[in-house]
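Quality-control log, excerpt.
Job 1 of 2 completed; input and output follow.
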Amino acid sequence: MMYNYLVEFIGTIFFVYVILTTKNPLAIGAALALALLLTVNVSGGYFNPAITIAMVSLGTLPTTDLVPYCLAQVFGALVALELHERFKL
């Protein structure tokens, strides 16, 4: 179960980093497709707290996973932002 949160964290880092670095819609779409392909069977591949909240309200995701998923996604986005700022070329 802990793997789900780690997968969401790492997937969010990857996806947000691609968004911040490339700003290219095709690259962003390809990154999202790749991230979903690799994570959908493990964690659902939500990468967005709004999607996570929607999945909980639909009953697809247990209510107990709401806060850990959202925290993993927010912290993943913050790590991606920090990586982008530190390694800006």
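Job 2 of 2 completed; input and output follow.
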Amino acid sequence: MLHVRAKIAEDGGIVLPVEYLQALGIQVGDEIILRVEDGVLRILTPHQAIEFAQELVRHYIPEERSLSDELIEERRQEN
């Protein structure tokens, strides 16, 4: 995809070209997550952010372990 120049509006807003929105699967009014990594701005959908977080956790939690099951069990024991 081509690089395009954009300007920052007085209110800090940025207008993204329609082609970029389509490529990202984003529509007007959708919520996005902004992230700065090594001085680069990344735009993620909430779904992409969740996948990113899950991938990070996968490196530390064995596949056979279910954190959600453990949380449910802890909640049951509290009652």
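Post-run check on job 2. The beta strands are 33-37, 40-44.
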